[in-house]
Structure formats: structure tokens, C-alpha cells
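job 3f2a | input accepted
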Amino acid sequence: MTDLLDLPWTEGRADVSPREYVDACLRAIEARDEKVHAFLHVNADADAAALPIAIKDNIVARNMPTTCGSQILRDFVSPFDATVVERLRASGASIVGKTNLDEFAMGSSTEHSAFGPARNPWDLSRVAGGSSGGSAAAVAARMVPAALGSETGGSVRQPAALCGVVGFKPTYGRVSRWGLVAFASGLDQIGVVTKTVRDCAEVFGIIAGHDPRDSTSSTHDVDDYAADVSAGVKGLRFGIVREAVEQLGGEVRANFDAAVDVLRRGGAIIEEASVPSIGYAIAIYYIVANAEASANLSRFDGVRYGHRSERARTLDEVYFDSRGEGFGAEVKRRIMLGTFALSSGYYDAYYGRAQRVRAKLRHEFEEAFRSFDYLVTPTSPEAAFPIGAKTEDPLAMYLNDVFTAPANLVGTPAIAVPSGFNAEGLPLSLQIMGPHFGERALFRAAGFFENETGYWKKAPLST
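job 3f2a | predicted structure (463 res):
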């Protein structure tokens, strides 16, 4: 079992039947997830398939719970499949379970899950990242070969970085959001977590493509995203984003410099790039995302579906008590901040200004991509931190998205690929960003780096 689940999904396994493969995943989940808590629901009756896959529990799947990590949806079972789930099933994939997450995808550590945090397989006392921490931990612990997550400000790439696996977010609109429970509709995207870049490209090829049920869905043709994974990087131009890394030091900076040297030795052209407004990305993100969350989460009112307070006697009490009992502290914080940013007298000062600076940031990214094929930064400013270390300091938690949020704000694709380990043996990660709809080239660069370093081959021992 261990040898099978250590292999990339895309490696040939002619001697293993689809039934044996799915059963190997289910046995691994049973043996390991009590410690890791990557799953909120396990599908013990999963069909035989060449691709067993887990999906984050804010993506609906027919006849399975969709809790969003929240008490307010604790008992909700979806009557339909999200578009990405439909496409996975049509390709022959099997959904083996739903993964843990920060409540309504609001967090960077999975500690805001109403059902307890996911733990990092490299050190069970540390966070798995978030909000797709369960998806990243499930892949890192070799319980599944692939998982879907969602991104609003880095929620696939950051946990992938902390767990030592590949995490990818596509161009906004490249993957349908139909069936993804909305956090911030102008930022939300579905992404992929895998052990290897090729696996990631193959899964992405299954779920990508236009969907008329999603009004933001792109009509761009789906490409053969894995075609250039082994093509190398000779002659390609990589820009180190000066404003993002100029204050960076310590192990993360040393690891980043070493990762850039790998690209340089492969024949890549490495130069400094400038994105002057990138330092405002976190401030922009937490205004725009919270404002949209305030509107999107108004549907959870105790009337239509989800938790309804048993003590409520009037309509006002149904609203107040159901939401008060059902939502956790972080979700309440973000709803209040978002409502304030949209309120009369403050809209233009906060939300309107944030959107104007966001447009400027997007223009600066477009200018940078006129000179460079890729932009590079670390994925996370630090390795996985201890559980509980930042729960009382929301700002410190929010800063974990400092390198990932810009790509969400401007809608470009980005990938996190393992780049080594710190002195404590915890994973570190390189982020590579590309221009809009540049996913095929992005997998090329990440594939080269992965092949040269081979960090994906090292699995955690703590599980």
C-alpha cells in the first residue's frame, strides 16, 4: 500500500486494478487520518477508479455532506454535483471523501474549522495551512494522490507549501465555480493539490473548461497542460519581484535564492522585476474579500437551509440566533468588517479605493509580464507554525497570504512547488506566477524545477 500511494498518479500501474487503488486510499485514510484530521467525510463506498480524489468540503458532491467547516451547515447534504465533480466523475475518477477547511474557507491554518484543525503530516503539532489544509494534508500524508481545494487569497498554494506538495490555482474563470460555496465571488477559484506537477496538470485538464452555468467562466480552449512538463526552462525569463522579497531574510530567503539558482543553472534568464503596488495586496484583499463575504453569507439566515436556532421565536430571532450559533468567531469578524467597508459613508473610502488600487496592481502585473515569462517569490513567508501560535493575532495570521494574495487579486495563474526544508525538517516552497491563461507554460517551469530537485519524493514520517 505504501509503495503504491508514494507513486505519482500518472505513473503506469498496469499491475494494480482501480478497485485495489481506491481500497489502498481508504485503508490509508483509516490508518492515518485519526492523527491528521484531513477529512470531514470519508466515502467508504467509493467506486473503483484509476484516480481516487478528495475534494474540499466547500465543493458540493451529490449525496455527500457539504459543511464548509461550519456548524451552520453541519447537516447539509447536497442533492447535486459541482461542475468540477461532474467532470471528475465523467473522467472515471472516484470521490473518496471531503476534506477539512477553515470555516467557509476563511483562514490560513484550518484552525477555524468548526470540527477541529487539520494537522501537518510533517509535524502533527503544527498547522497544515489553510484554508485548504485538509486537501494538502491528505496528499502529503499519502492518503490520496490528488485533491481539489479552493482559493480566495492563496488557500491552495499556502497549505500546499506548508505540507510539501504541489498546489496550483488557475486563471480566474478557467475552472467553473458552479457548486463552489461562495466566499468572495470575484476572487474565488478552484485549484488542485497533488504530489507532482504532472499529476497537477492532468487533473487540471479534467476540470478546466467553459461552463454556461458560471457567468464568469472563460471560453478559452482547454490545452494539453502536461505537454511541456519536461521541456526545460532554457531561455525563459524569470522576474524576481523586488518589492516582495527585499525585506525577506533567514531560512526562507536562503531557500528562495537556492531555488532561483536551480532555474539559472537550467538556462533560465533571471532578472529583477518591479511590481510597485504589491505591498498593498494584503490590505486590498482583506477589504475586497470581506466585503464580498458579507454579501454572500447573508443567504445563511436560518430560513432556507442550514442551521436554524431552536430557541428562536420571532423572525428577527431566527436570523440573529441562527447566525450567532452557526457562525464561528473568524467568520463573524469578516462579515462585520465587510459590512462596515460597504456601509454608507465608508464605501468609497474603503471598498471603492481598494478596487482602484487593485486595478493598478493588475496593470503592473501586465506590464511585468511584457518583460518576463514568469514572476517568482516564495510561496509562504515561513514554514508551518505551531497550532495555536497565531489564533489570538488575526493580523499575524493574515500576513501568511502576503505572497499568494496578489495572484488572486489580478486573476493570474500561480503554482507552489516544494523547494526544500528548513533546519527543523519542515517544507518550504517556491511560487511561480504566469500571465493570464499561461497555465501550460507554468507547468513547464514547475516541472523542470521539480525534476531537478526531486523534493516530492520525500514523504513525512509522523503519520
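job 3f2a | The domain at 2-275+377-457 is CATH 3.90.1300.10 (Amidase signature (AS) enzymes).
job 3f2a | closed
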